[in-house]
Amino acid sequence: KDIRNSLDENYLTYSAAVTKAESAQSSIAQLLQGVDELQLMLGDEETGIQTRLDTAIKNEEQICERVQSNSAILQCLTQLSAINRELQDMDRLVQSGELDKAAQKAESIETTVNAMENIEDTHIAAILVERVNLARMNIKENVLREFHKVIAVETNANSANLRVDSSRLKGRISVLFAALDSVKDGENVLKELALYIISAFVKPVLAAQLVTHDDAESPTSEFNVQLSNGSDTTPTDGVCDLVLSIVAFVSRVLGDRVWVDVALTELAQLVLQRCYLQRIPETRTELASFHKTVDTLSGFEATLLAQCADPSIERPIQAAVKRLDELFVERQCARALEQSRRAAESTAFAVYKMDTHQEWSLAFVQATVEDPDTKLASSFAQSIKEHPAAVFPQCIISESIVGTVSSAYWLLNESMQCNEPGLAQRLAETAQNVLDVYCVLFPVVHRQQLRKVPALALQFFNDCMYGAHHCTILGQLAAAENKVNPNWSAVARKFFDSGIRHVAELAESESRELKSLVGADNGTGFYNASDEQQRDALAKSLKRGRLALTQLCAAMRPPNVTPHMFYRILGRYLDAMFAAIIDGIVGVRDIGVDDSQVLSDHCRAAYGLVSLFHLDPEITCAYSTLTSAALVNSTDEQGDALLDSDDESDESETTAQGVRLAKKHCQMSDKLVQLADILMISRADILARRRAGLLAQYSVDELVSLVRALFSDTHERALDIDELKRI
Question: What is the CA radius of gyration of the chain?
Answer without folding.
Answer: 50
